[in-house]
Amino acid sequence: MRSMAPMRAPTHYLRVDLDDAAEAEYWLVVFDTTRDQLERAVATVGRDAQDVRSALVGACLPAN
Description:
Layout: H1 21-31, H2 35-45, H3 49-56
């Protein structure tokens, strides 16, 4: 089981920031996903939170 980093609400709720560990932990909880999946979604669609959410539910991520 991984140890959880401290969690903090994002500075900007419409942008996913993975550079800040505390904000990244917030997004992991909000999107109920893994760090790898979240990083892949952000790399695919950018940092817009709505686009990331869509990517995580499979609307935008290409199949492997």
